[in-house]
Amino acid sequence: MAAHVNDWNKRITIAEQMLPLISRLHREHNAVTTIFGRLLVKETAVEILKSHRYARRITERELDPALTLPVLQQLLELELGSGSIDVGRLAVGFEEQGGGDDAALRTYLEQELAELIGDHSEQKHTDVVLYGFGRIGRLLARILIAREATYGGIRLRAVVVRSKGEGDLIKRASLLRRDSVHGAFDGMITVDEENNIIWANGTKIQVIYSDDPATVDYTAYGIDEAIVVDNTGRWRDREGLGQHLKAKGVSRVVLTAPGKGDLKNVVYGINHNDITADDQIVTAASCTTNGITPVLKVINDRYGVEHGHVETVHSFTNDQNLIDNFHKGPRRGRAAGLNMVLTETGAAKAVAKALPEFEGKLTGNAIRVPTPDVSMAVLNLTLEKEAEREDVNSFLRQVSLTSTLRQQIDYIDSPDVVSSDFVGSTHAGVVDGLATIANGRHLVLYVWYDNEFGYSNQVIRVVEHLADSRPRVFPRRVAPAEI
């Protein structure tokens, strides 16, 4: 008992020593530190130790903070540029190559971070406007505010909505402050009613009232070359979304829904590099398409997929009725909180827009269920090669931990998790390894996804890509094909 207490006291003391180092790296170098992808910036000493414990998933043992503290100390001695630095990977990598004294550690870090050292290129800042302020819009605002404080780059400047009358601004600020699913806003929110401004953690959000995207003059508010994120779903084709480009101060448009016609449906991590300078309008596809496409991509690359069926068990959305009433869509008029509602999904077909090799290979349906957030996709696949359950799970686990798709694919094998455990997940999808079924060429995968927050993070990644402000990650991650 006493030994356990002493060990805890020793570890928490080391973690407390890390706090000012992490803060200085962020403040002085705009360097964001992580432990195997888990952010350390603005975390408590206890959270830092939890991140070290998380390392068991990668290294099969808890990471000793005594190994990471010297790395942080040495990083402060380097002339670092802006980037995301995985202290956990650096500490383990140094130990695996034999370790050594401070001089050896310094040499190792200089080799691993050569691209980052001495790079003091000025960071670009890109204005972002949210057109609409519903479920996704408010989550995008929360993420944008946090990302600007952590990384800089993209910055939320304005929200455009249709006025709902007296008290509109107060109500919208209140909805940003409190959320029944995702909890309270992390910080302070105040309202300037005279100037239609919401202040959130020091971020000035100009609220603009308009029902015509083409006539808004963003330059009048000091906003220029902005990326407009349309989360209303009101327009989904090039003609409708093109109205935003007629407004003064707009450079590009992102739709938070599947697009129609020739618009590119982008799943970040899969086909974001297909975006060209000529693409002024892109879409971030759907939450389900984002949830399943990365998993389908890596499985197809490794085993080949002949065909498959996607069944989504999806939380109800604002599109459905609370009680039985008229709805233009089949079955969606029935009470969302009382029924499982069988409906259609375009996600299976939409996968082919991001992965053309899946054209004609997938079918899909959806079942809406009485939960407010977090959904599941069941991928029932016929493979070209035979696969064993352990091999599939081991592969997906490694992809989730060390690959370039680690922000898109997560993996879990806990016997007790349920949907509410995935509220707030930043990943596009989370593979439930205990549910995996493999029998010859027949494979069934279960993928959880936070259809609100996880999807919103994917949207932000697309916006950052358009703004050329995605944080550089060091050490570099490997492609899934190399695992």
Trace the largest sheet across and list its strands. Answer: 6-7-8-5-4-9-10-12-11
CATH class of the largest domain: Alpha Beta
Strand content: 15-25%
Largest pleated sheet: 9 strands, mixed
Q: Structural class given helices, strands, pairing?
A: alpha/beta
Q: Spans with pLDDT under 50 lasting ≥5 residues?
A: none
The N- to C-terminal Cα distance equals 41 Å
CATH superfamily of the largest domain: NAD(P)-binding Rossmann-like Domain
Main features:
483 residues, alpha/beta, Dihydrodipicolinate Reductase, domain 2, Rossmann fold
Description:
The chain is α/β, with parallel strands linked by helices. The protein has 3 domains: 2-112, no CATH class; 126-286 and 460-482, 3-Layer(aba) Sandwich (Rossmann fold), CATH 3.40.50.720; 288-451, Dihydrodipicolinate Reductase, domain 2 (2-Layer Sandwich). The chain has 13 helices and 21 strands. The protein has helices at 2-29, 45-54, 56-59, 65-75, 87-96, 102-112, 135-150, 168-177, 238-241, 287-303, 347-354, 389-402, 453-466, and strands spanning 31-35, 38-39, 83-86, 126-131, 154-161, 189-192, 197-200, 203-209, 226-230, 250-255, 264-265, 281-283, 305-315, 341-343, 362-369, 375-383, 409-412, 429-432, 437-439, 442-449, 473-474. The two termini are 41 Å apart. Keywords: Oxidoreductase. Residues 126-287 form the Glyceraldehyde 3-phosphate dehydrogenase NAD(P) binding domain. One of its GO terms (molecular function) is oxidoreductase activity, acting on the aldehyde or oxo group of donors, NAD or NADP as acceptor. InterPro entries: GlycerAld/Erythrose_P_DH, GlycerAld_3-P_DH_AS, GlycerAld_3-P_DH_cat, GlycerAld_3-P_DH_NAD(P)-bd, NAD(P)-bd_dom_sf.
